[in-house]
Amino acid sequence: MKALLKAARIIAPQSTFHNTQQDVLIENGIIASIGSNLEATENTELIDARGCLLSIGWFDLQAQMRDPGFEHKEDLQTGCKAASAGGFTHVMVMPNTEPAIDSKGMVEYIGRENRFRLVQLFSQAAVTKGTKGQDFTDMVDLHQAGALAFGDGETEKYNSDITLKTLQYLQKVDGLLVTAPQDKYLSMFGQMHEGVQSTLMGTKAIPSISEEICVDRDLKLLEYAGGKIHFSNLSTKEAVEAIRKAKKSGLQVSCDVAANQLHFTDSDLSLFDTRLKVMPPYRSLDDSEALKNGLADGTIDAVVSAHAPHDEESKKLEFDLADFGSANLQTVYPVLAQHLDAETIVEKLAYAPRRILKQEIPEIETGASACLTLFDPAQKWTLNAETNHSKSVYSPFWERELTGKVKAVFNNGFCEQF
After folding, report:
1. What confidence tier does 42 reach under pLDDT thresholds 50, 70, 90?
2. Which has more pLDDT, 30 or 154?
3. Three-class HEC string of the chain
């Protein structure tokens, strides 16, 4: 495969070409040349990148691929296609499958086709068997099999004792505990954020303290036990402030936020649209602003898709019966383009996730492997049956015009254009 990207503006702070417009020639998965006025030779595909930005490939820290067990909602093939269309070259898959990612065989299943595909899949392996919150998995074996982090994902049920022991156990392998901070009892039967809107709608709600007390508890456990912890999918201003203080005190803590949490608030749920029913719920405008401030000052390290695809039987229901989650992989960039500048987007999607997981950071230099995302901040497009690559149509942006589109991704010797 040979491709020549013409006149792309490179966003790569670690590169000598950062913030310059360059032609980039890719041959056999390698960046063969970077410069001005490069000429395409025979059998070289010419890609017009004028007005486009080029960064290293993006890494999603949180996506549900539903495979195995729930392939009617998504499978690894369609999930990878949606991921690449969203600009991602690497994805960490959540453990909430059937069977759960709680064995070496399951970790190997997720990644076994990586050498044959553009999008590289990695596992967040379960802390407890079957993600049931009871018996521990063999986390050392799972780490050796290739698991990049540990957590029970969206069905997290374990208590403070399991959290404490996991923090202690993972220190043997310098492992990372990923936690989804929601108190299951305070959240029980809740459908949306607790506030004026939930009162107007007469809906059982999920209070902000459901997240906040879990963050406070786990930070105390981290201070006591040592280790490393990553809070996934933050949604409240108080949680952001707690993590800000914890970082200043020197604790090894990191966190992320779902892209859609920057865009939607609880007021958007007034029509009971199940596409907007997610966990954690979209909260108040003050919370949304606090999340943006946390990204700006570095308190929040990364942005995730929080891709949680569902089928019609799970979402085309009364609001209180519908499952939580939405399909988000393809819309992360157009959402972020409305709220963050290009360099911040690249930092939160490409660099920070790899630092959190201690993964090698690709380079945009001559001779480096081509792990690249090309995206156009001005292109308008619509997510619909023609452009959607996920099995799920339950996106809050379905049939809506978006601005900002991924044009091409390169990785592992493969290229896909959109």
Report:
1. confident
2. 30
3. CEEEEEEEEECCCCCCCCCCEEEEEEECCEEEEEECCCCCCCCCEEEECCCCEEEECEEEEEECCCCCCCCCCCCHHHHHHHHHHCCEEEEEECCCCCCCCCCHHHHHHHHCCHHHCCCEEEEEECCEHHHCCCCECCHHHHHHHCCCEECCHHHCCCCHHHHHHHHHHHHHHCCCEEECCCCHHHHCCCCEECCHHHHHHCCCEECCHHHHHHHHHHHHHHHHHCCCEEECCCCCHHHHHHHHHHHHCCCCEEEEEEHHHHCCCHHHHCCCCHHHCCCCCCCCHHHHHHHHHHHHCCCCCEEECCECCCCHHHHCCCCCCCCCCCCCHHHHHHHHCCCCCHHHHHHHHHHHHHHHCCCCCCCCCCCCECCEEEEEEEEEEECCCCCCCCCCCCCCCCCCEEEEEEEEEEECCEEEEC
pLDDT at 1 over 90: no
| Residues spanned by the domain of 393 | 2-54+365-417
Considering the domain architecture, whether residues 376 and 243 belong to the same structural domain is answered as no
Question: Looking at the predicted structure, is the pLDDT value of residue 156 above 90?
Answer: no
pLDDT at 41 over 90: no
**Count of domains for the chain:** 2
Which of the listed residues 327, 356, 385 is the one where a domain comes to its end?
A: 356
Among 324, 356, 388, give the residue marking a domain's end: 356
> Which CATH number covers residue 231?
3.20.20.140
pLDDT tens readout for residues 283-334: 999 999 999 999 999 999 999 999 999 999 999 999 999 999 999 999 999 9
Query: Is there a single domain that holds both residue 246 and residue 345?
Result: yes
